[in-house]
Design a protein that fits this description.
The chain is an alpha+beta fold. It has a domain of 82 residues. It has six helices and eight strands; from the N terminus they run E-E-E-E-E-E-H-E-H-E-H-H-H-H. The strands form three sheets. Strands 1, 4, 5 and 6 form a four-stranded antiparallel sheet that branches. The protein has a two-stranded antiparallel ribbon with strand order 2-3. Strand 5 and strand 6 form a beta hairpin. The longest helix has 29 residues. It is globular. The chain starts with a strand and ends with a helix.
């Protein structure tokens, strides 16, 4: 499982400080000047007037924060198909929360494993995953305070290394979604519409993937 930032259909100039609704209109209505110099921007100060549900977010340190949403995928590792998709507001806790939603199943016949990167390596996520009969095989974040939430009881098994290798294939799905699927920057506004379009694009990816798998199986020597 993994998540990615999906740019909203809103620009930085649509940001206005909350409470400025009654301020006089700018002289240039087409390209109004916006000056946030010296001001620390966060989702608690300005808000987009174009898409109020979009939030400032970024995936890695050093990147520019952009208005957007977080898309989340759960991939099965046998055929590389997406079996779960979510869209959430771009908050710091959205990825583990969405992951637990996708892992929640009332009647799971047997225990399963799930692989993910370092940002999921927290004691709370590991405990909640295990409560759902899921064994977390996460990349260890040894630099966090208190160390990694998983230890040698998980990492010693050969399946752990396999999961860590195969989990990176989820990036292929994100790559397809942002290029072929045109989901790098959405053309819709509002969380509900963006979520619908993301789900639709993931379904198209899976259909194409299934067709390719079926073709490869048909052409394989007996």
């Amino acid at each position: 499982m993994d998540g990615t930032l999906i740019e909203a259909w809103a620009g930085q100039k649509s940001f206005k400080r909350k409470g400025e609704a009654g301020s006089p209109p700018p002289a240039d209505r087409g390209h109004p000047p916006v000056d946030f110099r010296g001001e620390k921007r966060s989702n608690e100060t300005p808000q987009s007037t174009t898409d109020p549900e979009a939030r400032l977010g970024k995936k890695t340190r050093g990147q520019e924060a952009k208005l957007g949403y977080l898309g989340h995928l759960l991939m099965e590792n046998r055929h590389g198909l997406a079996v779960g998709v979510r869209l959430s507001l771009a908050t710091g806790t959205a990825e583990p929360q969405a992951a637990l939603e996708m892992l929640t199943q009332p009647q799971r016949p047997r225990r399963i494993t799930v692989a993910a990167d370092k940002k999921y390596d927290t004691h709370d996520f590991v405990a909640q995953a295990r409560a759902r009969h899921v064994t977390p095989q996460l990349a260890q974040n040894t630099e966090r305070r208190g160390g990694s939430a998983i230890d040698g009881r998980t990492t010693r098994h050969p399946g752990y290394a396999t999961s860590q290798r195969i989990r990176q294939r989820v990036e292929e799905i994100f790559g397809w979604l942002k290029t072929v699927g045109l989901r790098r920057k959405v053309r819709h506004r509002g969380r509900e519409r963006v979520a619908w379009m993301l789900t639709w694009a993931v379904a198209v990816y899976d259909l194409g993937r299934i067709c390719n798998l079926a073709k490869a199986r048909a052409e394989a020597p007996a």
